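Progress narrative, Year 2. Work on DUF1641 domain-containing protein from Acidithiobacillus ferrooxidans advanced from sequence curation to structure prediction during this period.
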Amino acid sequence: MTAVMAETSHEEELAKAREALGHLVENGDLERIVHLARLVGAAQDSMSDEMVGRMAGLASDGLDLLDRVHRSQVVHALPAISALVENGDLERIVHLARLVGAAQDSMSDEIVTRLAGMASKALCLLDQATRTGVMERMVTVAEKMDQEHILTDFLRCLAGATEEAAHAPPPKGGLTGLWELIKQPETQQTIQFLMLLGKHFRSCRLKH
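Result:
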């Protein structure tokens, strides 16, 4: 009785297996399984002990790198790095690093010594200017010049004079040409302004 039941169960399992194999054959999965088995077998045949050791070492190094990345919180910097890549700043940083590297390679010991000496002298000069109050007075004068637009007016006048001189006819020369130039009201006003400037500067110097 037991043998009959076992034989019946075995036949049922074979029927299920045949049905499953039929489905695999119909949808092409059996062929894919065969190709996959052949690929795995070929990979196993071509894998030497040296290659297995290299792959194991590579996997170990990769896991160690991932662990260090996770512990160093580099993941939090990925959004910032993505933004640098998108707006092109990362490429600019790379170019700047290359420029600095090229500058370091071209700098000899003599150039480094000269630059260090120049930096030291510049710091001494800045310290002396600060201690004597020269720096503060210069800042005050610069602020006053900016408030009264002196520098802006000077640059505008310089540009206008340069442009006008490029299109003006050449001077005639001689006393006659000089006399005609002096007779112009603009020339006399300019001379008068320069005389007043010299007068005030002389008064300031005499006070000291």
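Residues 2-27 form the longest helix (26 residues). Residues 114-168 form one domain.
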